[in-house]
Design goal:
This protein is α/β, with parallel strands linked by helices. It contains eleven helices and twelve strands.
Length: 307
């Protein structure tokens, strides 16, 4: 019997018309029994010889995993990033790889704004103080008075730029693949952006060439008191260097929704001037519904093309 596997920790099968269509065609759906990000070995176990399609989360789909999946024809990422998939190995195996870049974009952009505002107004620190019986008169900063530097002007970065404009912030950006910036956004080199921006927000995929894009030297090059936001991918930031920059007040604050190792248990937990979120950028109900439907449609169309 042909099967498809859904490895995201949650997925609404009952209300997804494309999955229902595949079920009616006699394809069996296998879910992730662990309800968390799979390891390589766990992915190999799930991708048995009857699996022809996969709706993937962020588990490591390495060459080893893909070579073990003898019948797999289509991987449909429920999300934007493709860094968890060995695309070269997939091509060698004849496996189509698709993603959903548009569906989660607004949700991630809105979370970015939430992180930005929380860092500027020290919302989390104030909350912790009030819960301890204190009543601090915490002074923060206006977003309207900041220059926001966006690294990456894709689906999400452009939305963040638009939202920042709505708050009357100045917006600059760096993206080597963009020649024409949106209205009101000034393109510049990465070095210029790091030296100019009050807030630096990452909106790029992860890759080996971008590993620790923001490292100790990058933090040194930033304005004293700058804020760093990462709602993109772990690995883009050297987390130890970030901790050092926060502890020395080189940076006034940071806010992260993505980490090199997840779930995160690292040294940034010790910093009071950082907002930490559990990689929930796309987890707005409406965006999640759209993303799941788009991922299932991609899978269905991919399987049709492969037949």
């Amino acid at each position: 019997m042909k099967k498809l596997v859904i490895t995201t920790s949650s997925f609404d099968i009952d209300n997804n018309p494309h999955i229902q269509h595949l079920l009616q065609k006699g394809i069996q759906v296998v879910s992730n029994p662990h309800k968390r990000r799979l390891t390589e070995d766990e992915a190999i176990v799930l991708l048995d010889d009857e699996i022809v399609g996969m709706i993937a989360g962020v588990e490591p789909l390495t060459e080893r995993v893909l070579q073990s999946a003898k019948s797999l024809k289509v991987i449909s990422r429920c999300g934007t990033g493709m860094d968890s998939v060995d695309l070269v190995a997939a091509k060698q195996q004849g496996i189509a790889v698709l993603n959903t870049p548009e569906a989660p974009a607004q949700a991630v952009a809105e979370l970015t704004m939430g992180l930005m505002l929380a860092a500027l107004r020290k919302v989390c620190q104030t909350d912790r103080s009030v819960r301890k019986g204190e009543w601090p008169r915490t002074q923060g900063h206006l977003l309207a008075a900041q220059t926001v530097g966006i690294i990456g002007l894709g689906h999400i970065g452009r939305r963040v730029a638009s939202l920042c404009h709505a708050f009357e912030a100045n917006v600059i950006a760096h993206d080597p693949y963009v020649d024409q910036a949106p209205t009101g956004v000034t393109l510049m080199t990465l070095e210029q952006l790091l030296a100019t921006a009050d807030i630096i927000s990452l909106h790029i995929p992860y890759g080996p060439d971008l590993h620790h894009l923001l490292d100790a030297q990058a933090f040194t090059n930033m304005k004293t008191g700058a804020i760093v936001i990462n709602a993109a991918r772990g690995g883009l930031i050297d987390e130890q260097a970030l901790k050092d920059a926060l502890n020395t007040n080189k940076l006034s604050a940071a806010a992260l929704d993505a980490f090199e190792q997840e779930p995160y248990h690292g040294p940034l937990l010790e910093c009071d001037n950082i907002v930490l979120s559990s990689h929930v950028g796309s987890l707005a109900k409406e965006a999640r519904q759209n993303m799941e439907i788009e991922a299932a449609e991609n899978l269905l169309q991919g399987l049709i093309k492969q037949d």
